[in-house]
Amino acid sequence: MEEVQIGGMRFTLDLSQPLYEQVLDQVRSSIAKGEIALGSKIPSVREMAQALKINPNTVMRAYQELERDQLTETRRGQGTYITTDSARVEQIRYRAAEQAIQEFLGKMASFGFDAQAIEKLLRKYGGEST
Amino acid sequence: MEEVQIGGMRFTLDLSQPLYEQVLDQVRSSIAKGEIALGSKIPSVREMAQALKINPNTVMRAYQELERDQLTETRRGQGTYITTDSARVEQIRYRAAEQAIQEFLGKMASFGFDAQAIEKLLRKYGGEST
DNA sequence: TAAGTGCATTATATCACTTAATACACTTAA
DNA sequence: TTAAGTGTATTAAGTGATATAATGCACTTA
């Protein structure tokens, strides 16, 4: 539950998920929400590892997945930079949204809620998130 | 992707999740959707294990979690039975729904979608599940 | 009594995740 | 040229969750 500030991003790691996945999610979220400027540099692997008190290899794994999604570009000897391709960011955003929706609706259906019931529940429980 | 019929339920196991979790989810779903009658008996641990071609201990783990949630009652020497307490089933259903909603909204928020955007996307992608 | 229940125990194996320690190629600035 | 900082690759080791295997026990029913 410890919060760490680094490179204009806030990080909170716990043991509920793989560390590399949490780093990946939180950097991707910062990009998607526009909290970090396109084209800007993110902390180096070693710097991030030290700040989060985790192994550089674990950070590497997260960074490599970001690059596979073309959300970052890495320049050998220089560092890792957020893409300047805003269309790519939008693509990732909507792809993630579609997947989240499918998962959500599938789970709700497995508990026997139809579209109408889901709509009603969304109004009831939808008010109080972060 | 192999589908197995047993005890009035359809099972499909894969390697994407722990086996005990998949068994747990699919039995719980059958109860929640009313596909299996309250008070009825579900297959024995050994029977289920043989049908799904997995270890009895793995089935046990799923069954124990069902009993912890009071969705089943086990009678030593007799077997495992679905609860007759319909209110309990409803409680589990709505608790699960609330959790799914919170997770969904949290994920969408992390990608920068507000309530209005979520509503719009639900209409767009909401049609084609199952 | 025999067969079928849930349940407990012990051992083993596998896999994902994480850390650790090094090393190398590259870039930049002193 | 040098030194420091980049990403990256490699090898080794440890840990925990998951799953299987083999056995046995207490209980219930036919």
Automatic annotation (TrEMBL), chains A, B:
<feature type="domain" description="HTH gntR-type">
    <location>
        <begin position="17"/>
        <end position="85"/>
    </location>
</feature>
<keyword id="KW-0238">DNA-binding</keyword>
<protein>
    <submittedName>
        <fullName>GntR family transcriptional regulator</fullName>
    </submittedName>
</protein>
<keyword id="KW-0804">Transcription</keyword>
<dbReference type="InterPro" id="IPR036388">
    <property type="entry name" value="WH-like_DNA-bd_sf"/>
</dbReference>
<dbReference type="InterPro" id="IPR036390">
    <property type="entry name" value="WH_DNA-bd_sf"/>
</dbReference>
<keyword id="KW-0805">Transcription regulation</keyword>
<dbReference type="Pfam" id="PF00392">
    <property type="entry name" value="GntR"/>
</dbReference>
<dbReference type="InterPro" id="IPR000524">
    <property type="entry name" value="Tscrpt_reg_HTH_GntR"/>
</dbReference>
